[in-house]
Amino acid sequence: PFSYHIPTCDSLPPSSDDSSCIMIDQPRNVSSISKISPIVENSSASSYFSLSFSFKIFISSILLCLLLLLSYCYYYNRNQHKNRLSPFSSKLSPRKQSSPLVNPIQSSPYHTPINIRQNNQLVNSSSSASAHTNLSCLNHRQTLHKSESNYQQIYFSSVNNVQHEIPFTNIRFLEEIGEGEFGRIFIGEVIDSENKCIIKTLQNENVEKEYFREIEIFRHIHHINISRLIGVCTEQKNPFLLMMYEYFSNGDLHEYLISQRSKHTRLTDFLFVSKQIVSGMIYLSDRNFLHNDLSTKNILICEHLNVKITNIGRYRQQYQLDYYNIANHLLPIRWMSIESIFSGIYSEMSDVWSFGVLLWEMFSYGIQPYYGYTNPEVIEMIRDRVLLTCPMNCPKRIYELMCSCWEEIDEQRPAFIELMQRLKELQEKPTVSPSIDDEIISLNRFESLKEKYRTLI
């Protein structure tokens, strides 16, 4: 009853595009497409490109998310590592500000704190690949330390104590004396305090762990003849982390000897100073500490000839010629033992050798050991057992004590406890003079040297 009229190409007016017509198979009354419509073809292509573009966007998004995730993991692990070095690293990390302090000067790029001997064994620095040089296998000593377990927690529990924390506003910087491994070093003072102090700053965050270790070491050192740690400054608003050590306006023992060269000094005064130094070294040796730079420039002079051992001499510009720069390490060659120079071995006995040279400095009124010889020549002289000669008017028994400190075999040198006993005997027993108190040490033969106390090479 119903019929549908399907238009065909015969019944329609001519079209501008023949491909849009539909042909009828009349016998079976089935229609078929003679050609694919361009409209359908364009639609399929658009769908394909749209799908491809969406896929690229999806892949790019995934890659971007992965990149962000990797970046987050990297910085998270980095922060976790820094936090393991210090529980309060966000507070104590040096704030890098460009605010200058006082009078910057060029100084030593190297710093060596007091070292520690482990398990009563000799310290051998040859384990460091960078320690070897071309000069007779000369080795630079390494700073060895005790077990690091929980040292940060121990240190920070003490830092938070009021008696160790010094407000930054109470610290006054007076003079820059040099620069060490941690940062710039100053002489300053704490307001309302009678004495000056040594201020060590932390400006190099790469050695933050070593900085904390030094604080932990000196926090446990309490001896009347060793410069003690006064306190630290950890306020977050400060440009640097600070630690303060004792310092005295009278300067160091070398400066004192220079000032006394035209005067007369009694032997008992030298023995009094020597006994204090030995007392401090006994304290360090009993706790397995090594100094490795024992000399008059590292002895602070207080009132009444009381002294304190420190380690700031290498920072000071005036003492740069006392050090031999080998592979960017400054070595006090003229005070070093033969085994330290040629084998890189450090022990209590190498400090004993240095003490013998310190005694020679005292009785020579501050003249540089092996004055007039270059550092390479000094190394050869020590190898050939050419020892320092007896200073003018130095008692024979004192010089014998010096030479005992320079024995080639370290086991034949006296320990510091034995040196203390021998110094006490020298004070008590009479000498060639009626009394050791009457022995006067003159400096007539040194007058011609004027101010020349350092060899230029």
From TrEMBL:
Taxonomy, superkingdom: Eukaryota
Pfam (any one): PK_Tyr_Ser-Thr
GO biological process, one term: cell surface receptor protein tyrosine kinase signaling pathway
MF (Gene Ontology): ATP binding; transmembrane receptor protein tyrosine kinase activity; Wnt-protein binding
Subcellular location: Endomembrane system; Membrane
Binding-site list for ATP: K200
Reaction it catalyzes: L-tyrosyl-[protein] + ATP = O-phospho-L-tyrosyl-[protein] + ADP + H(+)
Gene3D superfamilies: Transferase(Phosphotransferase) domain 1 (1.10.510.10)
Keyword annotations: ATP-binding, Kinase, Membrane, Nucleotide-binding, Transferase, Transmembrane, Transmembrane helix, Tyrosine-protein kinase
Domain Protein kinase: 171-432
Membrane topology, record value: Single-pass membrane protein
Chief location of this protein within or outside the cell: membrane
Keyword Membrane: yes
InterPro entries associated with the record: Kinase-like_dom_sf, Prot_kinase_dom, Protein_kinase_ATP_BS, RTK, Ser-Thr/Tyr_kinase_cat_dom, Tyr_kinase_AS
Transmembrane segments: 53-75
GO cellular component terms listed in the entry, alphabetical order: endomembrane system; plasma membrane; receptor complex
Protein name: Protein kinase domain-containing protein
Species annotation: Rotaria magnacalcarata
